Amino acid sequence: EKRRAQDGRPASRARGRQMDTSGERTRQGAPKSWAQRARSLGNTVRDGVQPLRAQLARIRERAAAAARGPAVASLTAATGIGSGPASSPGSVRPIGLIGAGVAFVARPIAQIADAGSSSDGNPASAGDDSRPILISSVEFDAEDPDLAQLARSVVTIRPNFSYTVADISADVQRIFSTGLFEAVAPESVDTRDGVSLKFKLVANPVVRAVVLRGASQLPVTVIQSVIKPQIGKVLNTNAMVAAVHEMQGWYNDKKVAHEFVNVGISADGIIELQVQEPRIGNVEVRFIDRKTREPCEGQTKPAYIFRHLKNIRPGATLSGRMSEDITDLTNTSGLENVNVQFSQRPHAVDGSPIMDAIVNVTEKQKAGFSGGGGISAKGLQEGGMSALVANADYYRRNLFGKCQNLTARVELSPSPGGGKPDVDVKLSHMDPWIGDSSRTSRRVFLDSDSTSLEPIHAKAEPTDDNQDVDDVAAAGDGPKALYVRKVISGVEYRRPLAASWTGTLSATYQRAYTHDDLKQTCLHDAYDSPLTFSGLAHDTTFNVLSRFVYEGRGKDEALLVLTAEQAVPVTADMLWFNRVVVRARRKFHAMGATLEVAAKGGNIIGDLPPYEAFQIGGANSVRGYPEGGVGTGRKFIVGSAELSVPLAPDQFDGYVFFDIGSDLKSGSQVLGDPAQARGKPGQGYGYGAGIAMHTPVGPIRFEYAVSEKGAGRMHCGLARSF
């Protein structure tokens, strides 16, 4: 210090340290601890990097595994996409993905210079990491000045301040955390002003290509989008982590089982990523007895089971889509339960684990009888005792072992007029999949059904809805009640068309009879208006119908039904007409409430029997009016809005509604003009409130509605077929 003062130099800032005339440090003071601790600083930092994700933590153990399978995609700096060269496993070293769950593996880090050694070469004695060291200067040695500047921007060490070994270790970690460096070696040089610290930086290789092995399910477009930005640049392990995470996100979204088992880079800059996708080996069908739960001999032909297994098949990758196969198979006629058992083979094939699958199938009871009774939705609309119904059924499942279904039903319901009970017969043969690639189903059927004609041909009486008696024609003596009985036979095909869309095509032969409550043929109503178009005891039609249905789910909870029906006069006595009907409905949810908006409309041209005309008014049309109370026409349009809120979750809902409808002045175009004879207005609206009770068979609705004329009416029914 005296010599410094004599020479006019500032006093040394290394307080508590003695310097000899040559400027070398003595063995006393903090530099002894620094010199000894600095030797192992590189290894301390390297070993301190911990994986953050368990899945990628096993890379170090599997780094020596042989590469599996051909490259799915290789992106080169020249073309962006191509078939890059595959390097041998021995030339690939694991990549240190700092902060991404991959254990850091770097080349040997240079040891820090033994700045604490004394002039006689003896090492410094051990000290405490927390003891401060004066840093006189900080330098960065890198081939790329931009990378050196980047490292300088992240470190916290500054010249002319004291720091501990732990501080320097933290800065080394900060440099590693940029993801651009393969090795960081801090070196120290003792000076008379303190310790000069230099970081020797070795950048990661420049990425020339990326090869992904074993990823047969991952699309090349996904690989391109996440990997291509890396090509031609210094490897950034952080960006590589993000790319791996994005690829994992695709796997997770598609519910595909996978595991990234190796991420490495060769000396010439080729990154290799290795993925394991477990695959299905053999698939076996095993039938389980529904009572004993033991294996048994089944009736279903295995081919009719395997055709449903699109994701559970030899060579397929394990994925969550297998549940779709199970659901599809369970819903197939004749099957009660389906589950899958997997067993892993002891040896992998081409690096992929192989899982053998056993599909356990429980079949339903083959045949049987059933019977019951209850209330029909049609009867509730018509009122009276006709709501009661009794039925007897015979069913035969899994015909010929082909998952086909045969049903026969007889329904009996009291006649509202007190006459003979109505007997309806329904026969149906259903094939849920005829075997084509479009999943087309086929139904062959024979139905008989009686429907009341009261909404169209009932005698008009002055009511609150129709108080102007002059508008009502005088009715003669006629039957108490009128019905139309239809016998329909035909075949119907249905198949999915696109997402949320299905299509139906059917051809039917129909005979329609009109009769009174005593089951006697009746051709005219009380106003002497004809009941059939042909004037005979029955009308005959051959109809071809096509229907397209869109059914949105989730947020897009909507329904759209487009129906076109053409009656073709195959013989001279058959009718000809064309009918088009459109129905639409949309639900909106907000703050626990649900707003449902619906509309429907239709048009008929050609030969129109009155019983085929559109009926406007009633529980499924304009509430506040009786069934058909607004009008009967060739055309119609009806709109409805309903706002509901839950009164008791999953039990009761309360709602208010508004309906409006019109026959578009087409009532006079119906044979006999039954609407005009009964003084129907042709248009009207209604509003009211109701309560819906949730039951296993559907919501039961109790509503009170008021028409535009102020007349109130109660409506009760199951659901609402708008």
Summarize the structure.
This protein is mainly β and 722 residues long.
Which features characterize this protein?
disordered N terminus; 40% strand; 722 residues; five-stranded mixed beta sheet; 16-stranded antiparallel beta sheet; 13 helices
Tell me the Rg in angstroms. Answer: 42 Å
Q: Strand order, biggest sheet?
A: 14-15-16-17-18-19-20-21-22-23-24-27-28-29-30-31
The global form is elongated
Task: Give the beta-strand count.
Answer: 31
**Overall pLDDT:** 79
> What is the CA–CA distance across the termini?
102 Å
Binned, the helix content reads 10-25%
In the predicted model, the low-confidence regions spanning at least 5 consecutive residues are 1-93, 96-127
Count of DSSP H/I helices: 13
Query: What structural class results from the helix and strand content?
Result: mainly beta
Strand content: 35-45%
Main sheet summary: 16 strands, antiparallel
